[in-house]
Amino acid sequence: MKKPTVLRKRFIPNETVDISADTLLHRSEELLITKWNVIRPRTDFSSGVSYSFLKEGYKISRFYDASGKFLYWYCDIIEVIYDEEKDTYTMIDLLVDIKLMPDGTLKVLDTDELAEALEREIITIGQACRALKKLDELLKMIDSGNFPPLACRSEEYWSV
User: What pLDDT, in 10s, does the model give residues 79-97?
Assistant: First the structure.
C-alpha cells in the first residue's frame, strides 16, 4: 500500500503539521486508518488509532494512555483536500469536536474556537455551517446507538 503525505491544518493555532509518520493501517478512497503516538509528550493520553472518513468529513479516534488502556473516543470534524498529483491529503480541522467516554458521558468541545474563527474571518461561513451540520450528524449517530460507525467497530486495529 502506497503511503501518502498527510497534513493536519489547524486554524487555532494557525499551523500545518505533517503527520505522515503515523503508521498507515488501511487506505481506500473513503477511509484512512492510522496508528499514532503524540507529537509532543502529554500526560492525558499518549497514542491512538484514527479513522479518517474522507468523504464524510470527520475523523474518529480511539485515545489510549501510556499503558495502552483505552480512554475515550474523539471526533474531529474535518474538511479533506486531496491532491492526487502529489498524493497528499490535507485534513483541515473545522474546530468543533466531540469527546465520548466509555461510560457514555459526552462533551462537545471548542465551539468557542469556531465562534472566534468566524469573528476573525479565518474560517468561512460555509465551513462553519458544514462543521455544525456534521456535529449534529455525529450527535444523532451517538444518540441513536449507531456509534461508532461500522468501520470503527472491528477490533483488528484497536491495539496500540
Answer: 999 999 999 999 999 999 9
Rounded Cα gap, residues 126 and 124, in angstroms: 5
Q: Distance between CA atoms of 78 and 56, rounded to whole angstroms?
A: 9
Cα–Cα dist 77/117, whole Å: 15
Cis peptide before 148 (omega within 30 of 0): yes
Start-to-end CA span in the chain (Å)? 20
Q: Give residues with Cβ within 8 angstroms of 2, minimum separation 6.
A: 27, 87
Enumerate long-range contacts of 28-34, CB under 8 Å, 24 or more apart. 29/54, 29/55, 30/54, 30/55, 30/56, 31/151, 32/4, 32/6, 32/89, 33/151, 33/157, 34/6
Which position has the grid cell 474563527?
117
pLDDT band at 41 (very low <50, low <70, confident <90, very high): confident
| Runs of H (alpha helix) within 5-97 | none
| CA–CA gap between residue 147 and residue 157 (Å, rounded) | 17
Q: Where do the H-state alpha helices sit in 62-143?
A: 111-119, 125-143
DSSP tag of 22: S
What class does CATH assign to 5-157?
A: mainly beta
